[in-house]
Amino acid sequence: MGRLLIIGCGGVAGVAIHKCCQNSKTFSEICIASRTKAKCDALKEKLEGTTDTKITTAQVDADKVEELVALIRSYQPDAVLNVALPYQDLTIMEACLECKVDYIDTANYEPEDTDDPEWRAIYEKRCKEAGFTAYFDYSWQWAYRERFKEAGITALLGSGFDPGVTSVFTAYAMKHYFDQIDTIDILDCNGGDHGYPFATNFNPEINLREVSANGSYWENGHWVETEPMEIKREYNFPQVGEKDMYLLHHEEIESLAKNVPGVKRIRFFMTFGQSYLTHMKCLENVGMLSTSPINYEGREIVPIQFLKALLPDPASLGPRTVGKTNIGCIFTGKKDGKEKTIYIYNVCDHQECYKEVGSQAISYTTGVPAMIGAALVVDKVWDKDGVFNIEEFDPDPFMDMLNQYGLPWVVDEDPQIVE
Ligand code: NDP
Protein backbone atom coordinates (compact mmCIF):
# COMPACT_ATOMS: atom_id res chain seq x y z
CA MET A 1 0.00 0.00 0.00
CA GLY A 2 1.89 3.05 -1.17
CA ARG A 3 1.49 6.31 -2.93
CA LEU A 4 3.96 7.38 -5.62
CA LEU A 5 4.33 10.75 -7.30
CA ILE A 6 5.78 10.30 -10.78
CA ILE A 7 7.30 13.37 -12.43
CA GLY A 8 7.50 13.34 -16.24
CA CYS A 9 5.26 11.63 -18.76
CA GLY A 10 7.53 10.77 -21.70
CA GLY A 11 8.77 7.45 -23.09
CA VAL A 12 10.35 6.06 -19.91
CA ALA A 13 7.59 7.35 -17.63
CA GLY A 14 4.95 5.70 -19.83
CA VAL A 15 6.47 2.27 -19.18
CA ALA A 16 7.16 2.92 -15.47
CA ILE A 17 3.52 3.95 -15.05
CA HIS A 18 2.22 0.82 -16.85
CA LYS A 19 4.43 -1.27 -14.58
CA CYS A 20 3.27 0.51 -11.40
CA CYS A 21 -0.26 -0.35 -12.48
CA GLN A 22 0.77 -4.02 -12.73
CA ASN A 23 1.99 -3.77 -9.14
CA SER A 24 -1.06 -2.31 -7.41
CA LYS A 25 -0.19 -4.14 -4.19
CA THR A 26 2.72 -1.71 -3.71
CA PHE A 27 1.35 1.21 -5.70
CA SER A 28 -2.23 1.53 -4.55
CA GLU A 29 -2.16 5.16 -5.73
CA ILE A 30 -0.04 7.09 -8.21
CA CYS A 31 -0.06 10.70 -9.35
CA ILE A 32 1.36 11.44 -12.80
CA ALA A 33 2.62 15.02 -12.88
CA SER A 34 4.37 16.64 -15.81
CA ARG A 35 4.80 19.83 -17.80
CA THR A 36 2.07 18.86 -20.27
CA LYS A 37 -0.88 17.61 -18.22
CA ALA A 38 -2.77 16.44 -21.32
CA LYS A 39 -0.22 13.61 -21.74
CA CYS A 40 -0.77 12.53 -18.11
CA ASP A 41 -4.55 12.60 -18.59
CA ALA A 42 -4.32 10.54 -21.81
CA LEU A 43 -2.28 7.86 -20.05
CA LYS A 44 -4.61 7.83 -17.05
CA GLU A 45 -7.55 7.32 -19.39
CA LYS A 46 -5.77 4.46 -21.18
CA LEU A 47 -4.92 2.65 -17.94
CA GLU A 48 -8.03 3.20 -15.87
CA GLY A 49 -10.20 0.12 -15.79
CA THR A 50 -7.18 -2.15 -16.35
CA THR A 51 -5.68 -1.74 -12.88
CA ASP A 52 -6.52 -1.46 -9.19
CA THR A 53 -4.09 1.45 -8.86
CA LYS A 54 -5.87 4.75 -8.35
CA ILE A 55 -4.43 7.30 -10.81
CA THR A 56 -4.55 11.07 -10.50
CA THR A 57 -2.73 13.68 -12.60
CA ALA A 58 -1.27 17.13 -12.11
CA GLN A 59 0.57 19.86 -13.97
CA VAL A 60 3.97 20.85 -12.64
CA ASP A 61 7.02 22.75 -13.81
CA ALA A 62 9.73 20.62 -12.23
CA ASP A 63 12.30 23.40 -12.74
CA LYS A 64 10.53 25.26 -9.93
CA VAL A 65 11.14 23.97 -6.40
CA GLU A 66 8.15 25.86 -4.98
CA GLU A 67 5.73 24.23 -7.46
CA LEU A 68 7.12 20.81 -6.61
CA VAL A 69 6.89 21.45 -2.88
CA ALA A 70 3.25 22.55 -3.21
CA LEU A 71 2.42 19.41 -5.22
CA ILE A 72 4.22 17.07 -2.81
CA ARG A 73 2.52 18.72 0.19
CA SER A 74 -0.92 18.36 -1.36
CA TYR A 75 -0.47 14.78 -2.67
CA GLN A 76 1.54 13.45 0.34
CA PRO A 77 3.37 10.65 -1.53
CA ASP A 78 5.60 8.01 0.08
CA ALA A 79 8.21 8.66 -2.64
CA VAL A 80 8.83 10.71 -5.77
CA LEU A 81 9.99 8.99 -8.98
CA ASN A 82 11.81 11.43 -11.26
CA VAL A 83 11.44 10.32 -14.87
CA ALA A 84 11.52 13.86 -16.26
CA LEU A 85 14.95 14.97 -17.51
CA PRO A 86 18.36 15.07 -15.79
CA TYR A 87 17.98 18.88 -15.80
CA GLN A 88 15.34 18.54 -13.07
CA ASP A 89 17.26 16.24 -10.70
CA LEU A 90 18.39 18.94 -8.29
CA THR A 91 15.10 20.83 -8.07
CA ILE A 92 13.22 17.58 -7.41
CA MET A 93 15.79 16.47 -4.80
CA GLU A 94 15.54 19.88 -3.15
CA ALA A 95 11.72 19.59 -2.96
CA CYS A 96 11.93 16.03 -1.58
CA LEU A 97 14.30 17.27 1.09
CA GLU A 98 12.00 20.11 2.05
CA CYS A 99 9.03 17.70 2.32
CA LYS A 100 11.05 14.76 3.77
CA VAL A 101 10.01 12.32 1.04
CA ASP A 102 12.16 9.59 -0.60
CA TYR A 103 13.54 10.25 -4.10
CA ILE A 104 14.31 7.90 -7.05
CA ASP A 105 15.75 8.75 -10.48
CA THR A 106 17.29 7.15 -13.58
CA ALA A 107 19.96 9.61 -14.73
CA ASN A 108 22.46 11.90 -13.03
CA TYR A 109 22.29 15.68 -13.04
CA GLU A 110 23.20 17.62 -16.13
CA PRO A 111 22.58 21.36 -16.60
CA GLU A 112 20.31 22.50 -19.40
CA ASP A 113 22.53 25.49 -20.13
CA THR A 114 26.16 24.42 -20.31
CA ASP A 115 27.17 28.05 -20.99
CA ASP A 116 26.00 29.19 -17.56
CA PRO A 117 29.21 30.79 -16.17
CA GLU A 118 28.58 29.69 -12.57
CA TRP A 119 28.12 26.04 -13.58
CA ARG A 120 30.96 26.29 -16.12
CA ALA A 121 33.52 27.36 -13.49
CA ILE A 122 32.68 24.33 -11.30
CA TYR A 123 32.66 22.06 -14.37
CA GLU A 124 36.08 23.18 -15.55
CA LYS A 125 37.57 22.67 -12.10
CA ARG A 126 36.05 19.16 -11.99
CA CYS A 127 37.40 18.33 -15.48
CA LYS A 128 40.92 19.16 -14.27
CA GLU A 129 40.62 17.39 -10.93
CA ALA A 130 38.66 14.29 -11.96
CA GLY A 131 40.00 13.91 -15.51
CA PHE A 132 36.83 13.50 -17.56
CA THR A 133 34.95 16.13 -19.54
CA ALA A 134 31.35 14.81 -19.67
CA TYR A 135 28.76 17.46 -18.81
CA PHE A 136 27.13 15.13 -16.30
CA ASP A 137 28.63 13.76 -13.11
CA TYR A 138 27.49 12.64 -9.67
CA SER A 139 29.14 15.38 -7.60
CA TRP A 140 26.00 17.55 -7.64
CA GLN A 141 23.75 14.83 -6.24
CA TRP A 142 26.32 13.28 -3.92
CA ALA A 143 26.57 16.74 -2.34
CA TYR A 144 23.09 16.08 -0.85
CA ARG A 145 24.27 13.04 1.16
CA GLU A 146 24.44 14.67 4.58
CA ARG A 147 21.19 16.58 4.17
CA PHE A 148 19.25 13.46 3.12
CA LYS A 149 20.80 11.52 5.96
CA GLU A 150 19.86 14.17 8.51
CA ALA A 151 16.32 14.33 7.09
CA GLY A 152 16.03 10.53 7.47
CA ILE A 153 15.12 9.98 3.81
CA THR A 154 16.49 7.90 0.92
CA ALA A 155 17.66 9.09 -2.48
CA LEU A 156 18.12 6.16 -4.87
CA LEU A 157 20.19 7.29 -7.87
CA GLY A 158 20.25 5.60 -11.25
CA SER A 159 17.36 3.12 -11.26
CA GLY A 160 17.15 2.66 -15.05
CA PHE A 161 18.95 0.03 -17.13
CA ASP A 162 22.36 1.62 -17.49
CA PRO A 163 22.82 2.99 -14.90
CA GLY A 164 20.50 0.75 -12.98
CA VAL A 165 20.25 -2.88 -13.96
CA THR A 166 23.92 -2.97 -15.02
CA SER A 167 24.87 -1.61 -11.58
CA VAL A 168 22.66 -4.20 -9.85
CA PHE A 169 24.25 -6.93 -12.03
CA THR A 170 27.58 -5.72 -10.64
CA ALA A 171 26.38 -5.88 -7.03
CA TYR A 172 24.97 -9.36 -7.73
CA ALA A 173 28.25 -10.55 -9.26
CA MET A 174 30.15 -9.19 -6.22
CA LYS A 175 27.77 -10.89 -3.81
CA HIS A 176 27.43 -14.30 -5.46
CA TYR A 177 30.24 -14.90 -7.97
CA PHE A 178 33.48 -13.12 -7.01
CA ASP A 179 35.80 -12.43 -4.09
CA GLN A 180 37.40 -9.76 -6.25
CA ILE A 181 36.19 -8.15 -9.49
CA ASP A 182 39.09 -6.97 -11.66
CA THR A 183 37.37 -5.70 -14.79
CA ILE A 184 33.86 -4.75 -15.86
CA ASP A 185 32.79 -4.26 -19.48
CA ILE A 186 29.26 -2.92 -19.80
CA LEU A 187 27.86 -3.73 -23.25
CA ASP A 188 24.76 -1.95 -24.48
CA CYS A 189 23.48 -3.34 -27.76
CA ASN A 190 20.39 -2.20 -29.56
CA GLY A 191 19.79 -4.56 -32.45
CA GLY A 192 16.46 -2.85 -33.20
CA ASP A 193 15.48 -1.25 -36.50
CA HIS A 194 12.84 1.52 -36.62
CA GLY A 195 13.10 2.11 -40.36
CA TYR A 196 13.91 5.85 -40.13
CA PRO A 197 17.24 7.10 -41.56
CA PHE A 198 17.88 8.81 -38.20
CA ALA A 199 16.08 8.83 -34.86
CA THR A 200 17.10 8.51 -31.23
CA ASN A 201 15.67 5.90 -28.89
CA PHE A 202 15.28 8.24 -25.97
CA ASN A 203 15.24 11.99 -25.47
CA PRO A 204 17.28 13.26 -28.48
CA GLU A 205 18.93 16.10 -26.59
CA ILE A 206 20.23 13.84 -23.82
CA ASN A 207 21.10 11.02 -26.22
CA LEU A 208 23.03 13.14 -28.74
CA ARG A 209 24.94 15.00 -26.06
CA GLU A 210 26.05 11.68 -24.57
CA VAL A 211 27.08 10.10 -27.84
CA SER A 212 28.93 13.08 -29.34
CA ALA A 213 31.04 13.63 -26.21
CA ASN A 214 34.54 12.29 -25.54
CA GLY A 215 34.74 8.66 -24.50
CA SER A 216 36.42 7.62 -21.27
CA TYR A 217 37.10 4.62 -19.09
CA TRP A 218 38.40 3.93 -15.62
CA GLU A 219 41.78 2.22 -15.32
CA ASN A 220 44.08 1.71 -12.37
CA GLY A 221 42.52 4.42 -10.24
CA HIS A 222 42.06 7.16 -12.85
CA TRP A 223 40.09 8.19 -15.93
CA VAL A 224 41.50 7.69 -19.42
CA GLU A 225 39.81 9.96 -21.95
CA THR A 226 39.43 9.20 -25.68
CA GLU A 227 38.17 11.08 -28.72
CA PRO A 228 34.46 10.47 -29.47
CA MET A 229 34.07 7.01 -31.07
CA GLU A 230 37.84 6.45 -31.03
CA ILE A 231 37.68 2.90 -29.63
CA LYS A 232 35.67 0.42 -31.66
CA ARG A 233 35.16 -3.31 -31.07
CA GLU A 234 33.02 -6.01 -32.64
CA TYR A 235 30.97 -8.35 -30.49
CA ASN A 236 28.72 -11.27 -31.22
CA PHE A 237 25.72 -10.58 -28.97
CA PRO A 238 23.59 -13.55 -27.88
CA GLN A 239 20.22 -13.48 -29.72
CA VAL A 240 21.22 -10.34 -31.67
CA GLY A 241 24.40 -11.18 -33.59
CA GLU A 242 27.60 -9.43 -34.62
CA LYS A 243 27.60 -5.63 -34.03
CA ASP A 244 30.09 -2.74 -34.01
CA MET A 245 30.29 -1.09 -30.63
CA TYR A 246 32.08 2.05 -29.46
CA LEU A 247 33.53 3.08 -26.13
CA LEU A 248 31.58 5.90 -24.46
CA HIS A 249 31.80 7.73 -21.16
CA HIS A 250 28.89 6.55 -19.03
CA GLU A 251 27.74 7.70 -15.63
CA GLU A 252 27.72 4.36 -13.80
CA ILE A 253 31.50 4.05 -14.32
CA GLU A 254 31.91 6.92 -11.86
CA SER A 255 29.94 5.28 -9.05
CA LEU A 256 31.08 1.71 -9.73
CA ALA A 257 34.72 2.86 -9.54
CA LYS A 258 33.95 3.94 -5.96
CA ASN A 259 31.69 1.06 -4.97
CA VAL A 260 33.58 -1.96 -6.37
CA PRO A 261 36.66 -2.25 -4.14
CA GLY A 262 39.90 -2.90 -6.02
CA VAL A 263 38.35 -2.82 -9.53
CA LYS A 264 41.10 -2.26 -12.09
CA ARG A 265 39.19 -1.30 -15.22
CA ILE A 266 35.61 -0.33 -16.14
CA ARG A 267 34.57 0.33 -19.72
CA PHE A 268 31.23 1.02 -21.41
CA PHE A 269 30.44 0.15 -25.02
CA MET A 270 27.35 0.96 -27.06
CA THR A 271 26.45 -0.35 -30.51
CA PHE A 272 25.81 2.09 -33.37
CA GLY A 273 25.12 1.51 -37.04
CA GLN A 274 27.08 3.45 -39.65
CA SER A 275 24.00 5.43 -40.78
CA TYR A 276 23.43 6.77 -37.24
CA LEU A 277 27.07 7.82 -36.91
CA THR A 278 27.18 9.52 -40.32
CA HIS A 279 24.00 11.51 -39.60
CA MET A 280 25.23 12.48 -36.16
CA LYS A 281 28.63 13.67 -37.47
CA CYS A 282 26.95 15.73 -40.16
CA LEU A 283 24.53 17.33 -37.68
CA GLU A 284 27.43 18.07 -35.34
CA ASN A 285 29.54 19.58 -38.15
CA VAL A 286 26.78 22.01 -39.12
CA GLY A 287 26.19 23.04 -35.48
CA MET A 288 22.84 21.33 -34.93
CA LEU A 289 23.99 19.61 -31.74
CA SER A 290 24.91 22.91 -30.07
CA THR A 291 23.23 23.78 -26.76
CA SER A 292 24.12 27.47 -27.08
CA PRO A 293 21.18 29.68 -28.08
CA ILE A 294 21.41 31.50 -31.44
CA ASN A 295 19.32 34.35 -32.75
CA TYR A 296 17.15 33.34 -35.71
CA GLU A 297 15.01 36.04 -37.32
CA GLY A 298 14.67 37.91 -34.04
CA ARG A 299 13.95 34.80 -31.95
CA GLU A 300 16.34 32.91 -29.76
CA ILE A 301 16.54 29.18 -30.52
CA VAL A 302 18.76 26.39 -29.18
CA PRO A 303 19.92 24.29 -32.17
CA ILE A 304 19.65 20.90 -30.43
CA GLN A 305 16.14 21.74 -29.18
CA PHE A 306 15.13 22.70 -32.72
CA LEU A 307 16.57 19.41 -33.96
CA LYS A 308 14.56 17.58 -31.29
CA ALA A 309 11.40 19.16 -32.70
CA LEU A 310 12.26 17.77 -36.15
CA LEU A 311 13.18 14.24 -35.10
CA PRO A 312 10.64 11.47 -34.48
CA ASP A 313 9.38 11.42 -30.89
CA PRO A 314 11.11 8.42 -29.24
CA ALA A 315 7.75 7.48 -27.73
CA SER A 316 6.39 7.03 -31.29
CA LEU A 317 9.00 4.45 -32.35
CA GLY A 318 7.24 1.54 -30.64
CA PRO A 319 5.01 0.27 -33.44
CA ARG A 320 7.80 0.37 -36.05
CA THR A 321 10.78 -0.99 -34.15
CA VAL A 322 11.67 -4.64 -34.67
CA GLY A 323 14.57 -6.66 -33.24
CA LYS A 324 16.10 -7.04 -29.81
CA THR A 325 18.29 -5.29 -27.28
CA ASN A 326 20.97 -7.09 -25.31
CA ILE A 327 22.43 -5.17 -22.38
CA GLY A 328 24.71 -6.59 -19.73
CA CYS A 329 28.11 -6.76 -18.10
CA ILE A 330 31.15 -8.99 -18.49
CA PHE A 331 33.06 -9.39 -15.24
CA THR A 332 36.51 -10.87 -14.75
CA GLY A 333 38.09 -11.51 -11.37
CA LYS A 334 38.78 -14.18 -8.80
CA LYS A 335 36.75 -16.62 -6.71
CA ASP A 336 38.46 -18.93 -4.20
CA GLY A 337 41.82 -18.03 -5.74
CA LYS A 338 40.74 -19.02 -9.29
CA GLU A 339 40.34 -16.73 -12.32
CA LYS A 340 36.72 -16.35 -13.35
CA THR A 341 34.71 -14.62 -16.11
CA ILE A 342 30.94 -14.22 -16.25
CA TYR A 343 28.51 -12.30 -18.44
CA ILE A 344 25.13 -11.27 -17.01
CA TYR A 345 22.72 -9.88 -19.57
CA ASN A 346 19.10 -9.31 -20.50
CA VAL A 347 17.63 -9.68 -23.97
CA CYS A 348 14.52 -7.66 -24.68
CA ASP A 349 12.34 -7.79 -27.81
CA HIS A 350 11.05 -4.45 -29.16
CA GLN A 351 7.78 -5.87 -30.50
CA GLU A 352 7.04 -7.84 -27.32
CA CYS A 353 7.40 -4.58 -25.36
CA TYR A 354 5.12 -2.81 -27.78
CA LYS A 355 2.46 -5.48 -27.40
CA GLU A 356 2.63 -5.28 -23.62
CA VAL A 357 2.88 -1.55 -22.92
CA GLY A 358 2.86 0.24 -26.28
CA SER A 359 6.52 1.29 -26.35
CA GLN A 360 9.88 0.13 -27.73
CA ALA A 361 12.50 -1.74 -25.71
CA ILE A 362 14.71 1.25 -24.79
CA SER A 363 11.92 2.92 -22.84
CA TYR A 364 10.84 -0.50 -21.55
CA THR A 365 14.27 -1.50 -20.25
CA THR A 366 14.46 1.84 -18.38
CA GLY A 367 10.85 2.08 -17.18
CA VAL A 368 10.71 -1.41 -15.64
CA PRO A 369 13.73 -0.88 -13.32
CA ALA A 370 12.45 2.62 -12.47
CA MET A 371 9.27 0.99 -11.14
CA ILE A 372 11.26 -1.75 -9.35
CA GLY A 373 13.57 0.75 -7.61
CA ALA A 374 10.55 2.82 -6.56
CA ALA A 375 8.74 -0.31 -5.28
CA LEU A 376 11.73 -1.39 -3.15
CA VAL A 377 11.95 2.10 -1.64
CA VAL A 378 8.20 2.46 -1.07
CA ASP A 379 8.01 -1.05 0.49
CA LYS A 380 11.06 -0.14 2.66
CA VAL A 381 12.94 -3.23 1.42
CA TRP A 382 15.64 -0.72 0.54
CA ASP A 383 15.72 1.75 3.39
CA LYS A 384 18.87 3.74 4.13
CA ASP A 385 19.11 7.40 5.02
CA GLY A 386 21.22 9.41 2.61
CA VAL A 387 22.01 9.49 -1.12
CA PHE A 388 22.97 6.14 -2.65
CA ASN A 389 23.74 4.66 -6.04
CA ILE A 390 21.74 1.57 -6.77
CA GLU A 391 24.66 -0.88 -6.44
CA GLU A 392 24.89 0.10 -2.76
CA PHE A 393 21.71 -1.87 -1.96
CA ASP A 394 21.12 -5.64 -1.71
CA PRO A 395 20.73 -6.76 -5.35
CA ASP A 396 18.72 -9.94 -4.70
CA PRO A 397 15.18 -8.53 -4.41
CA PHE A 398 15.77 -6.34 -7.47
CA MET A 399 17.06 -9.31 -9.50
CA ASP A 400 13.95 -11.31 -8.54
CA MET A 401 11.68 -8.49 -9.62
CA LEU A 402 13.47 -8.18 -12.99
CA ASN A 403 12.42 -11.77 -13.70
CA GLN A 404 8.93 -11.09 -12.46
CA TYR A 405 8.32 -7.83 -14.37
CA GLY A 406 9.59 -8.62 -17.85
CA LEU A 407 13.39 -8.31 -17.87
CA PRO A 408 14.69 -11.85 -17.24
CA TRP A 409 18.46 -12.19 -17.07
CA VAL A 410 21.02 -14.83 -17.97
CA VAL A 411 24.37 -15.68 -16.38
CA ASP A 412 26.86 -17.05 -18.95
CA GLU A 413 29.93 -18.51 -17.25
CA ASP A 414 31.94 -18.94 -20.47
CA PRO A 415 31.38 -15.77 -22.52
CA GLN A 416 33.30 -14.19 -25.40
CA ILE A 417 35.41 -11.44 -23.85
CA VAL A 418 36.17 -7.97 -25.28
CA GLU A 419 39.81 -7.24 -26.21
P1 NDP B 1 11.19 12.20 -22.69
O1 NDP B 1 11.73 13.43 -23.31
O2 NDP B 1 10.40 11.23 -23.50
O3 NDP B 1 10.27 12.59 -21.43
C1 NDP B 1 10.63 13.57 -20.52
C2 NDP B 1 9.37 13.99 -19.78
O4 NDP B 1 9.72 14.97 -18.79
C3 NDP B 1 8.34 14.64 -20.68
O5 NDP B 1 7.06 14.20 -20.32
C4 NDP B 1 8.49 16.13 -20.37
O6 NDP B 1 7.33 16.90 -20.50
C5 NDP B 1 8.85 16.07 -18.91
N1 NDP B 1 9.53 17.30 -18.52
C6 NDP B 1 10.60 17.89 -19.09
N2 NDP B 1 10.88 19.04 -18.47
C7 NDP B 1 9.97 19.17 -17.47
C8 NDP B 1 9.73 20.16 -16.49
N3 NDP B 1 10.50 21.25 -16.39
N4 NDP B 1 8.71 19.96 -15.64
C9 NDP B 1 7.91 18.87 -15.70
N5 NDP B 1 8.09 17.90 -16.63
C10 NDP B 1 9.10 18.06 -17.49
O7 NDP B 1 12.44 11.48 -22.00
P2 NDP B 1 12.63 9.91 -21.72
O8 NDP B 1 11.37 9.37 -21.17
O9 NDP B 1 13.26 9.30 -22.89
O10 NDP B 1 13.73 9.95 -20.55
C11 NDP B 1 13.36 10.20 -19.20
C12 NDP B 1 14.58 10.08 -18.30
O11 NDP B 1 15.11 8.76 -18.37
C13 NDP B 1 15.73 11.02 -18.69
O12 NDP B 1 16.29 11.54 -17.52
C14 NDP B 1 16.73 10.09 -19.36
O13 NDP B 1 18.05 10.56 -19.25
C15 NDP B 1 16.52 8.83 -18.53
N6 NDP B 1 16.98 7.60 -19.19
C16 NDP B 1 17.73 6.73 -18.45
C17 NDP B 1 18.18 5.56 -18.99
C18 NDP B 1 18.90 4.56 -18.15
O14 NDP B 1 19.07 3.43 -18.60
N7 NDP B 1 19.32 4.86 -16.94
C19 NDP B 1 17.94 5.22 -20.40
C20 NDP B 1 17.06 6.16 -21.08
C21 NDP B 1 16.64 7.33 -20.49
P3 NDP B 1 6.69 17.25 -21.95
O15 NDP B 1 5.85 16.06 -22.24
O16 NDP B 1 5.92 18.50 -21.72
O17 NDP B 1 7.84 17.44 -22.90
TrEMBL record:
Protein name from the UniProt record: Saccharopine dehydrogenase family protein
Residues annotated as domain Saccharopine dehydrogenase NADP binding: 5-156
Domain Saccharopine dehydrogenase-like C-terminal positions: 160-407
SUPFAM superfamilies: NAD(P)-binding Rossmann-fold domains
InterPro entries: NAD(P)-bd_dom_sf, Sacchrp_dh-like_C, Sacchrp_dh_NADP-bd
Domain of life of the native organism: Bacteria
Lineage, opening ranks: Bacteria, Bacillati, Bacillota, Clostridia, Lachnospirales
Membrane-crossing segments per the record: none
